[in-house]
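Service request form, structural biology core

Requester: graduate student, group of Dr. S.
Request type: structure prediction, single chain
Budget code: on file
Notes: please return the result as structure tokens.

Sequence provided:
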Amino acid sequence: MENSLTISENLKSAIRIAQAFAKENKNEKIGVSHILRALMHREAGLHDFLKAIGKDPGYIAEWAE
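Core staff response, request fulfilled:
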């Protein structure tokens, strides 16, 4: 049986955004803070989910900064 991994468009977007944050900060590698910030970006989808469950995405994004 072949093991394949399907990456959602939201995840692909989050990875691209995290790479951009790392490059912007002159980091060679993507770190946890880059990933969290990327996930908080509206394109990644977590922002809307957090709002739907009554959490403040702005606070989390600011903390990741």
